Amino acid sequence: MIKTPFPVNRLVAIGSAAAYCLLAYTVPRQNFGLLFMIMLALFLGYSSMVMPYRFTGAKKQQPDPFLFAAAIVFRLLLLFALPCLSDDVYRFIWDGRLLAHGHNPYLYLPRELLNTTMAREAGLNEALFGQLNSPDYFTVYPPLNQAMFGLAAYLAPASLPGAVMWLRIPILLSEIGSLWLMTQLLRRFRLNPNLALLYGLNPLVIIELTGNVHYEAVVIFFCLLAVWWLVSEKTTLSAIALSLAIATKLVPLLFIPLAIRVLGWRRGILYAVVVGLCTLSLFLPFASVELVRNIFSSINLYFQKFEFNASVYYVLRAIGYWIKGYNAIEFIGFWLSVVTALSILWISFRWRNVTPAVQILGIMSIYFALATTVHPWYATTLVAASVFTRFRYPLVWSALIPLSYATYQVTPYQENLWLTAVEYGIVVLVASLEIRLPRLVEPNEKATGVPTDGFHL
């Protein structure tokens, strides 16, 4: 096994810690040059630290205590930073203050509330409103997310930094829990537990989840917990965990067809019913006709109005401009959604010669490839899934997707489609090589005695 000298790891970790602090506390996203240079340095350090553990066939089976401690410390360093690369947190605080004062956040548009008595009582002022990136849209965040927003607002009712810190606590706890679950699952599947470092030390994961306060961290934790309980034959608990993931972000709904295929039709349908009932029960405190109408209207707008850092959609958009002379996002977005749904069913039920881990990676890859909006933090879910497979193209994407922050250099925002083409072109190239030439990127399974294609259920 290739082993990086321990002193080198210490030096790289110290340098990385300084870079995380510099990025989180001093660099705005408008300063793309400095932002990308720091991210590049962080990924070079990351590559150095995880190099011995990049293959599933590595023989070392004890977790590296120094590197796991470093993964946690890097996150703790960001505890008191205001998010510098995303403004989503201000909507979290807006929704949380509404909930903390007994109001249903699904029922009100921010612009309609501004300067009302309700807004003043809840501390929803013009300064906070000016930070919102979606003042004319109803909230789309599911109930468990809203509960965490409300708790943070209750604990820090008048302090923006305090609310951000309390919003970050569930993410930190989830990240620690995810690292523990990853090591346990990797051991269960006879894989190297240090593969969890591919996720734990990944700079995009650290910056976008803990640093920029995105709740994909909580989703990943509950999904891992669902898998852990599933392989432990605690099916009901697994279904409850998956429902908690869905109640944080709706994306894990994509895994329901795969769960049915893995468990078989009878057990799988029962599993899906339990997931559905638990998820619906979490929505009950907010239940109303307006909730259904408002949340679906916002989701519909998301797929048919918003566009950012897309891949397949941008190609189709260009073709649409050439044929029709205008942006046909509503037409293209609808049919991409249909193709996505059919692809998920195909991967779930027809990919029978691969493991569930590879199917999960395939589902998420198709979903993001056909999406009209792909923010950097979305890639963290692919990084988590890749830990259990031989595929490393999500790690390459995690290093390239910060190129999308070049959009924020000017006002109004303007995407650099050349950088987008570079981002996805390299990712597609690496993914193609890994699919077609697997032995170039992974030691032979016969030589190591360790499965290289992910976990089996």
TrEMBL record:
It comes from the Bacteria. Signal peptide: none annotated. The keyword Membrane applies. The chain crosses the membrane at residues 34-53, 65-82, 213-231, 237-256, 268-289, 328-351, 357-379. The keyword Acetylation does not apply. Keywords: Membrane, Transmembrane, Transmembrane helix. This is DUF2029 domain-containing protein. It comes from Fibrisoma montanum. The lineage of its organism: Bacteria, Pseudomonadati, Bacteroidota, Cytophagia, Cytophagales.
